[in-house]
Records
---
Amino acid sequence: MTGTQPGGEAPLTTIDKVGEHEGQRVTLRGWLYNLRASGKLLFPIFRDGSGTIQGIVPKAAVSPETFETVKGLTQESSVVVRGRVRADQRAPGGYELDVDEVEVRQRVDENAPFPITLKEHGVDFLMEHRHLWVRTPRQSAILRIRAEIIKAARDFLDGAGFTLTDPPILTPAACEGTSTLFPVEYFGEEAFLTQSGQLYIESTALALGKVYSFGPTFRAEKSKTRRHLTEFWMVEPEMAYAGLDELMELAEHFIAFIVDRVLGRRRADLVLTGRDIAKLEAIQAPFPRLRYDEAVAMLNAAHARGELPQPFEYGNDFGSPDETYLSSQYDRPLMVHRYPAAVKAFYMQPDPEDARYALCVDVLAPEGYGEVIGGSERIASYNLLKQRIEEHHLPLDAFGWYLDLRRYGSVQHAGFGMGIERAVAWICGLDHVRETIPFARTLNRMYP
Ligand code: 4AD
Ligand code: MG
């Protein structure tokens, strides 16, 4: 067989890097993912967080103790293994390991085995065991892609002259509408978990020019859709001296950069999740743009042809079937701009050409993955902003500081927010956001 002798040099490495050690003996630290036996041959599959690799343990080539140890290994037992790396065309990662030494750190008791076996489990069971589910290859791949998306978002903005400014999470007032706030008791006063860092980064944008925030945000809306979490992560760029056109340009280059980065660095993980990669390769700026009214006309025409069951009620936000229909018309994200001001947030700048519309944009991901970005130009006029705060019955005193931004050097400014989980769902091709974040918080889930 290999002739490898236990005890020789065996540098520590990870499964994703074994290719750098072809023909050499290495040490891997991980867990047993699966074990097959065929007569005098054992085929343990190990995982270490960077990938999985199949080991080969022929009875004739290892000590009797090593053979028995591997033979008795249970799923998810933690092990340090040593062996020689061998290229194999048929192996999923291109390499196998001729194992000669195994140290068991903790052997899982076979009378209380790892609850997630390789057979199918229902998603409720898996979510109840999310703390263990994250170990399975597909879930680990999704988490690596999530990390890449976050890094890409930050690298893009850092490289484009944006400064990260962290807004508070405990806030005195609403940003996106009062019905969706989580109240918290704050030394005898009522405070809220933030819905968006936007209002605060409008302040830092007027200080630093181009800024962004990246952090957790909270929405108490009681929606049970496959796109809503109560706690999610948002990246929000904000620019002074910029309007809707610059914002849409930023959005398309931002998204194209992120997709390109994931394709370049996480291709194997995309394949593992079963993603149709050709669909992602089509994501290039510029993106198609439609006014809200044009999108409504498309929906009505589709309804008239019998392609949509419901007629669209003008003035509404798009529902999920509407978004799916609209986005299915294009192979790139669709930017829908200039919604009726009445359906959008209080801070949006009205279109100077027709004040019934807001200078805002929603970016709808292709293939029916829904809205990934929402943004707008902000009201720059003190008087108009004050009037909107009053019309929306928001507490004026809590917005004193926000109005100050329109008193001292007010300028045109604009920004957007991208929900990380929506972006992960789209890029990984997941039909529910619960798998896009390590521990999802939804209307009916707080455990684990
Ligand atoms: O469209 P939204 O509500 O916009 C804002 O919060 C703005 N203040 C952002 C800004 O202009 N700086 O949210 C922005 C994005 C949505 O497009 C969506 O991707 C995501 O955040 N999002 C959610 N993701 C998961 N669960 C929820 N409940 C979400 N609500 C919004
Ligand atoms: Mg929105």
Note: Residues 131-436 form a domain with the BirA Bifunctional Protein; domain 2 fold (CATH 3.30.930.10).
---
Amino acid sequence: MAMSARPRVLITKRIFPEAVEFLERSFDVDYNGTDRVLPSGELIERARGCQAIVSQLTDRLDAGVIAQLEGVRIIANVAVGYDNIDVAAATARGIAVTNTPGVLTETTADFAFALLMAAARRIPEAHAFVHSGQWRTWIIDLLAGQDVYGATLGIFGFGRIGAAVARRGRGFGMRILYCDEQPAPAEVERELEARRVSKEELLRESDFVSLHVPLTPATRHLISRAELALMKPTAILINTARGPVVDEEALVEALERRIIWAAGLDVFENEPAVHPRLLELPNVVLAPHIASASYATRRRMSMMAAENAAAALSGKRPPNLLNPGVWPAEELP
Ligand code: GLV
């Protein structure tokens, strides 16, 4: 192999081509231009000699893997969520970790609202009904659903995406409740007429509950049996955050027994596996983790991760650094 002075980047999985081209202009790139997830052993092997890894949420970069990354300075995840990376382990080894916040906010909020509408008004069932030739006549309660306009929308995690979903809800005349460790800035509360309430109040009062928390030990199974039992029998749960935020077994039971009315799910506990009984239920709308999947947004996410990697490889503090401790503060000119 020819010796090269250029830093080397591993891109673990296919991303938008402009991001690959951008990196290839300055660096040597080992590009897995397929959608196959590299098994840990292969990822570690290919990362040897690389100073940057552009990763995706399907790459499990746990402490065991991170311990074997020699010479890597940055892991640039193409996602806003980063529960696939053990950031503490990376920090301990002086590896910067970055994500892609902001660029996917509106796209993800659009999709959360699409799931909300689809579940409330039974759009997948309606489509299947027409498609399979079952439509004979107008029937008074055919595929009747729940009203969205004027309903109460409860949001867990009132960060960028949660607030963007609330903003859409306001367009539908919805009352906004939220639950977050931190109160939102006063101007955001005012703009959205949003009220911070306890978890119990949110669950009891909301017609729609939408999840926008990161996955952490504290949010794992945030919604389980006890929480579902507090919800209205007409309530609809929307999850575009991370699968393990919901206890999937408890949710299946709640949907089967009509403890709650419906759910819209973009994320699952063991992706890409979906609980088999979820597939049997009419009152759940399922999607394969695509909330941020518009062409423009996925392209921006690809570029943002590439720019984070490039910054680190050029000795600059990456713009979306999650563990600032690993990077010395920028020197003043
Ligand atoms: C996708 O799930 C993301 O975290 O960006």
Note: The chain is about 35% helix and 15% strand.
---
Amino acid sequence: MSRLVYVLNGPNLNLLGKRQPHIYGHETLADVEADCRKLAGELGLELRFHQSNREYEIIDWVHEARETAGGIVINPAAFTHTSVAILDALNTFDAPVIEVHISNVHKREAFRHHSYVSLRADGVIAGLGTQGYQLALRRVAKLIDEKKAPAA
Ligand code: DQA
């Protein structure tokens, strides 16, 4: 299986570090990307790291990943709670999908408690801050490795 992993980020995450730091922390998305790239190197993964405020761009990256990638880590941000279209796109992707939220969405407003993306995600990480991305990458690497391992 391909060791290419897409890390996709939804709307407003470009403002990470400036946006409600009491909720999302002080790290910027560039910091998150740098940490992900470092870890990906250690895990032998190749990374495509993207952010968009536009739903269709996220869908297009999922379509691109279908052709090439061994996994997707996605923080769909507010699209988590609204986007059947992103769910439909992820349902066309055959490899592991891990959903990440920096904040604990279950401790927040009721509208954040429902996730369309969770209907497809193989795992969900919420409330572990930006460390959630690292843990998600480790999980994807493990699932890729297990797929490669010969049957016992
Ligand atoms: C978020 C949680 C979402 O509810 C919110 O809309 C975001 C970020 C998180 O990472 O905690 O933009 O996905």
Note: The mean pLDDT is 96.
